[in-house]
Design brief:
Order of helices and strands: HHHEEHEEEEEEEH
Helix content: 25-40%
Shape: elongated
Number of helices: 5
Number of domains: 2
Distance between the termini: 42 Å
Oligomer: single chain
Structural class: alpha+beta
């Protein structure tokens, strides 16, 4: 193109304004909002299921079973039309923690039970059973506390090879308090801690931009269907 060249664009028909007006009509229509809500519900479900499939348990090779928390969240996803727009909700107790992250503290107990890594030298040979299970599911575990650190462990009674202190003056029957410096050789199912931090993982859910694009797509589909049915 030469230095003095110019470009002229002629618009013979304004197609953008009517389309935007139709989009506004969709959001003002209860039926339109319901269509968008159903579409977004499917999109969020599909994203959660895909995320679950693409992010296997990192300790699967060690025998840890999958809890499929994210897949369960997909089944708990629900879309609905509201008075002002569309709401997508996920009724699952863990999805918010996985998405936003945060520090977890015990509510019904004094300590949190964290499954030990099966590859840890102190892990029981069957420690992989603990992942995704409450300690209440096992009846062969006993408690060991490590000095005044506030950290302890739940250890298999019948497979324990652990050197601990002999001070049994505190605690109920079967509970022992280990002195600092003692060595654990095996048998642990769970570490007991006062708190645990979960890292935020926003990738679990679609981005805001993706949600907006999906909503626009479903609105456009609704407009096309409505237009076709009217023979326009």
């Amino acid at each position: 193109m030469s230095a003095g060249a110019s470009v002229t664009i002629n618009i013979s028909r304004d197609e953008a304004t009517p389309y935007i007006e139709r989009l506004i009509e969709v959001m003002e229509s209860v039926d339109g909002r319901k269509v968008i809500a159903r579409g977004l519900e499917r999109d969020v479900r599909d994203h959660l299921i895909r995320f679950n499939a693409q992010n296997p348990n990192r300790n699967a090779a060690a025998g840890w079973r999958r809890t499929n928390v994210v897949a369960d969240a997909a089944n708990a996803t629900h879309g609905e039309a509201t008075a002002e727009g569309v709401r997508i909700s996920i009724n699952h107790p863990m999805i918010g923690l996985r998405y936003f992250g945060g520090t977890v503290t015990p509510v019904k107990a004094k300590l949190l039970a964290i499954p030990i890594d099966p590859a840890h030298p102190a892990a029981d040979p069957q420690a992989a059973e603990a992942y995704g299970q409450s300690p209440r599911a096992f009846h062969h575990l006993r408690l060991v506390m490590f000095g005044k650190s506030g950290v302890g462990a739940l250890i298999a009674r019948n497979r324990t090879d652990i050197a601990i202190g002999a001070d049994r003056r505190k605690g109920r029957e079967g509970r022992k308090r280990a002195k600092q410096g003692n060595t654990i050789h095996g048998g642990i199912y769970y570490w007991l801690v006062q708190r645990a931090t979960v890292r935020a993982n926003p990738a679990i859910l679609p981005t805001d931009a993706a949600i907006q694009q999906s909503a626009a797509t479903h609105a456009a589909d609704y407009i096309e269907t409505a237009t076709t049915s009217k023979g326009e």
